[in-house]
Automatic annotation (TrEMBL):
Its main location: membrane. It comes from Streptosporangium sandarakinum. Pfam families: Oxidored_q4. This is NADH-quinone oxidoreductase subunit. It is an enzyme of class 7 (translocase).
Length: 126
């Protein structure tokens, strides 16, 4: 007697590979836990921060301008992410003028974000 699983049967191989992958990772983590030496000492349990012994409290404030640098990075990263696919589609037949106009609108928004950052003086290092 043969059972046909139909459309969902094609996912059986994917599910089986997922189960095998999880089993391999779990087995590796379990083997690591069983084979590693466990000798905790006060030096090993101390907080480690870039080779500097922790002194004082763990509270430190950071300046807001670092967040602005992060936002500017995101603007440039999003710009790059959209420019590469656009460059590959631009030469395809039927996409020329439409993609050109859309990209100029997109670059206009990016330019407004950069102009805002420049006007707020977050693009200076001083």
């Amino acid at each position: 007697m043969t059972v046909s699983l139909g459309y969902l049967g094609s996912y059986a191989a994917v599910f089986a590979l997922l189960v095998v992958g999880v089993a391999i990772v779990a087995g590796a983590l379990f083997a690591n836990r069983m084979l590693r030496p466990a000798r905790p000492t006060p030096e090993k349990l101390a907080t480690y921060e870039c080779g500097v012994d922790p002194v004082g409290e763990g509270w430190a404030q950071s300046q807001v301008r670092y967040y602005v640098f992060t936002y500017l990075y995101v603007i440039f990263a999003v710009d790059a992410v959209f420019l590469f696919p656009w460059a590959t589609v631009f030469a395809a037949p039927g996409f020329g003028m439409t993609t050109l106009v859309e990209m100029f609108v997109f670059l206009g928004f990016i330019a407004l974000g950069i102009l805002y950052g420049w006007r707020k003086r977050v693009l200076t290092w001083a």
